[in-house]
Amino acid sequence: MIGTLHIKNIGIIEDLSIDLNKGLNVLTGETGAGKTLIIDSLQIISGGRFSKEMIRKGETNSFVELCIYEPENENAVDGNIIISREIQNNGKNMCKINGRMTTVNELKEFMSKFIEIHGQNDNQNLLDNKVHLQYLDGYIGDKILESKNEYEKLYNRYKEIEQQLKENFGDDKERQRKLDLLKYQIKEIEEANLKLEEEKELEEKRKIIMNSEKIVENLKQADDLIRENSIDSISIAIRALEKIENIDKKYEQTSTNLKNIYYEIQELSRDITSYKEEIYFDEEENNYIEERLDLIYGLKRKYGNTIEEILKYVEEIKSETERIENLEEYNTKLKQEQKEVQEQMNILATKIHKVRKEHSIKLSQEINKELEDLEMQNAKINIHIDYTETEYFKTGKDIVAFYITTNIGEDEKELSKIASGGEMSRTMLAIKKVLADSDKMPVLIFDEIDTGISGKAASSVAKKLKAISEKHQVLCISHLPNIAAIADYNYFISKDVQKERTKTQVKLLKENEVIEEIARISSGEINEITIKYATELRNKKAS
Q: What is the DSSP letter of 170?
């Protein structure tokens, strides 16, 4: 249940904290005092939409924080879950669950398990067929639980097989398409006849060919200079040293060293001549190199960053091709198992459908009885259950939808087609009353559910809210004395002007203040007659 709701900077709410309690909590107060802003804040903390215009004038952000007491929940710390949402005027959101950052969608998903809000224009759950199915199955209870659990296990296996077949190319066309693609890739790579160092060698050859003229010119210049200058000069120097080498050993050693240099330069000269003779420009070879490199670059773009990666990839797809070609037998077994699972699912789905059909009539009758008490005598709920022949859902093969006729002689229509927000709210109240024992939602919030009703219908609404509050925490904004009188806790919402700014205030009323508030909303005045009337209404609650 909700423990504390803290709101800052939303509309005329400056800084407000409300400690809510178990049972029926009723909020009353002046028109425009901020009662609806409190519901808006609960919608915001539940992941609802937020408009920047809601931020209090002059402030840069709004903040809503909620403490939920759910000791059995895995997210609870000491039984409490703290949820907060801060929204800045630049549209930035900051949502937290027990201090952990989360997205708005995650917040919405989380809060959908704790709070359900019903108002004049917000009965979205009532319009959702998935929720209709939950309502019906919750009403049926244990009578359907075993079959549903067994069906769900089969359904999960059915989806596993479906996924395996998809991954295993269980579809013949898809499998053949994949094989054709893989074989094309294998052929393309193998026909290229790639070698590991080939790209490097080709690039070196291309570099030489592209610079052949420059290379020949400089090799010739180097060769000429060596022959004309170095070799002849060193040869003359050697002959001069030979004439004195017998005089001293050092001259002999120098002569020997110079001869070695002479031989090395001769060898270098021969090498340069050889390099010069090797250089040529072959147009045909150049075209081959360019085409070959283009082919390699194209394969790299498709299959890997290097030739080594391409060759590794082709071995992988060869293995995959072999695996796919051998999958047919395995897929045949999977398809047979899938067929058997489907047959079992069909048997259980038919059984579940029969139980739902039977109890849908009972549930419709009970809801219609509640609608009569709410002054909707001509309204009739009819629960449609359509059994699908080909589709499988996690909950069976049924599509459940609540239809309603609001007036005699009219055709029944989906609940979403109800024009009146009051009718929608009372319909939800009737459903919640019937499902009070089976509904697992901890907190139910009703925003001005009493709009447009009075007299007997008002008393019925009050009684049903009270009955629902025995199993749920209920928060209700109301203008009816009947509802205020039956509340477990009454809160008065008012507004005050301080320093030329309006702000909302909330007060938990004492018993004498509750009587005065009931008197006020019953006739707009507090006098002896209205006090007496309020006391009588309050005494009915006690009885």
A: -
